[in-house]
UniProtKB/TrEMBL annotation:
Stored InterPro entries: 16SrRNA_methylTrfase_J, SAM-dependent_MTases_sf
Protein name stated in the entry: SAM-dependent methyltransferase
SUPFAM superfamilies per UniProt: S-adenosyl-L-methionine-dependent methyltransferases
Source organism phylogeny: Bacteria, Bacillati, Bacillota, Negativicutes, Selenomonadales
Highest taxon of the lineage: Bacteria
Family annotation (CDD domains): AdoMet_MTases
Length: 267
């Protein structure tokens, strides 16, 4: 198992830029939770602070939310396309992930790769208030940013807002978590591993990519997922990926013209 080493500080916006008590409280709470320095910002740039403390990243409390700043870009919580996907579901148009997972109200989902959180939001909406979504993120900095956003950012509508609040985030390695989980303890297990070649470049995705777990899924991880899930194990990958065959996914589904697809194991 790879251990994620935290090389980061926590700080706030520069003095005079809405340096509110809420930002100070968020910075202090985050630093205590992660066990990393809470650094007064003053008028220093983030580059100066990272160099002074010898770290690769800075978590910045701004506007009451966290932003992860690295040399490659900034990662902050944003629901992405989840609001449009939820709108489509409300209109009865469906969603490829929801179909692949076979989600209905009341189901229990284990999402082993939280990432930006967009898929987890859609999953949470689909299973409703009687269902649960537990999302894992192996990098503690990414987990802190996305968990804080899910808990405190405002959704575009009530359904999305409620779905965000229902997601439970754990900083955990997927295989370690699965090994400790009880047999048949959830309905479906979902994996969205980091693509070896990105579909698109952006400052946020670049910041995510440099810190995210880039290891390929192992046969043991899939075997543990099959033990823990009652109904399905699903993996998202590029449509042409050899990972489907390597890991035993023979049923491939998704949008006909989409560059991504979902491998589905019925249990």
């Amino acid at each position: 198992m790879r251990t994620n080493t935290i090389s980061a500080i926590v700080t706030t916006v520069r003095r005079g830029q809405k340096y509110t008590e809420a930002n100070r409280t968020l910075a202090a709470r985050t630093a205590a939770a992660l066990g990393i320095p809470n650094v007064p910002r003053g008028n220093d740039s983030l580059e100066e602070l990272r160099a002074a403390y010898g770290v690769d990243a800075a978590l910045v409390a701004r506007r009451g939310l966290l932003t992860l700043v690295t040399a490659e870009g900034e990662l902050f919580f944003h629901p992405g396309m989840s609001h449009l996907r939820i709108k489509n579901l409300l209109l009865g148009h469906g969603d490829h992930l929801v179909s692949a997972l076979g989600l209905v109200e009341g189901m229990h989902v284990l999402d082993c790769t939280l990432g930006t959180g967009a898929d987890a939001i859609v999953e949470s909406f689909a299973v409703g208030a009687q269902g649960t979504v537990t999302a894992l993120e192996s990098n503690p900095l990414i987990a802190a940013v996305i968990a804080d956003g899910l808990a405190h950012a405002t959704g575009d509508n009530y359904e999305m807002h409620a779905a965000m609040r229902r997601i439970t985030v754990h900083h955990a390695d997927a295989l370690t978590y699965l090994r400790a989980a009880e047999t048949d303890s959830c309905d479906v297990v979902y994996f969205d591993p980091m693509f070896r070649r990105p579909l698109h470049e952006s400052a946020g995705m670049n910041a995510l990519r440099v810190l995210a777990d880039s290891r390929a899924l192992t046969e043991e991880t899939i075997a543990e997922a099959r033990r823990v899930a009652r109904l399905r194990v699903v993996m998202k990958e590029r449509r042409e990926s050899a990972e489907f065959e390597r890991l035993g996914f023979t049923h491939i589904t998704g949008g006909k013209y989409s560059r991504i697809a979902y491998g589905v194991m019925e249990l």
